[in-house]
Amino acid sequence: xxxxxxxxxxxxxxxxxxxxxxxxxxxxxxxxxxxxxxxxxxxxxxxxxxxxxxxxxxxxxxxxxxxxxxxxxxxxxxxxxxxxxxxxxxxxxxxxxxxxx
Length: 101
Description:
mainly beta
């Protein structure tokens, strides 16, 4: 519960940070959020698991209409299974997304 509360406070503080990329070819930013993940398959009683993600972003303007967007993000995912095994899946990922717009 403390992690969720800290994440919400962090997001509230970051809302005020605004980056203008119109005159700059390279801009940086900070990203934070909440994940809700689950596992499908043979598990009948799997429940939703709440996690978080946090990272940094970089946007590079190749032309005024063509951008390269990337960043580095740490995210947590998983699931809880409430059958006789009481299985909990706690997965952590380091993601490097790259896209162009």
